[in-house]
Design a protein that fits this description.
Elements: H1 2-6, H2 11-15, H3 19-41, H4 44-61, H5 71-90, H6 118-121, H7 124-136, H8 139-150, H9 155-162, H10 166-197
Length: 202
């Protein structure tokens, strides 16, 4: 998905300051970067600041883009750094560092909700619950989950965006998925139990 968007643009034109090409870049990526800011920061004003600063810095440093990483990876790296700076400013105690000594606990309350119909899994209430569960993740797990599972970046690209190892991406992604599954188990578990109690009408 991101690779398809990247192919729409001429790096040479962008590096040479083509205003029309840069305007197309803003139109293409601004919505996704704003949504990422909202999901990372949970605040509309902060997300708007991330969006604005991302493209200001992209414009400032576009001439340095060498194409070693994809255009979308480069933009998301800028956006993520902007968001992380705001997180550190608002919450200096936040741990965004290494995973050493942070094994966490394996969730115990997991429910298999594979038997629930798709419309129930994708209901407005279910999506709202998922959004709240994502917001409750520790920041370093949340950003990996958002980049990999929501924005669709590969493990390699996610590692490049965050300047961490691919192993760290995989570790944090696993922890994020497990925590989300535990958070959602109470909600969907009740629905699984309810459906099991309803007699088959056939």
């Amino acid at each position: 998905m991101n690779e398809d968007r990247d192919r729409q643009f001429s790096l040479e034109a962008l590096r040479n300051g083509d205003r029309d090409e840069f305007a197309r870049l803003v139109d293409t990526f601004s919505g996704a970067i704003y949504r990422l800011g909202i999901k990372m920061l949970g605040n509309q004003q902060d997300a708007e600041d991330v969006l604005q600063n991302t493209f200001l810095k992209a414009l400032q440093y576009m001439h340095t883009l060498e194409g070693r990483s994809s255009l979308s990876t480069w933009l998301y790296r800028i956006a993520t750094n902007e968001a992380l700076m705001l997180i550190r400013r608002h919450h200096p105690e936040t741990d965004l560092g290494t995973d050493e000594g942070d094994e966490g606990t394996r969730p115990e309350n997991l429910v298999d909700w594979c038997c629930l119909p798709e419309e129930e899994l994708l209901s407005e209430e279910g999506r709202s619950l998922l959004d709240r569960a994502i917001q409750s993740l520790p920041e370093k797990l949340r950003i990996v989950f958002l980049l990999r599972d929501i924005e669709g970046f590969s493990i390699e690209s996610t590692a490049q965006i965050l300047s961490i190892s691919e192993t760290a991406v995989k570790t944090r992604l696993l922890r994020a998925r497990l925590r989300l599954r535990e958070d959602l188990s109470n909600y969907y578990g009740e629905r699984v139990r309810t459906r099991r109690q309803i007699p088959d009408a056939r």
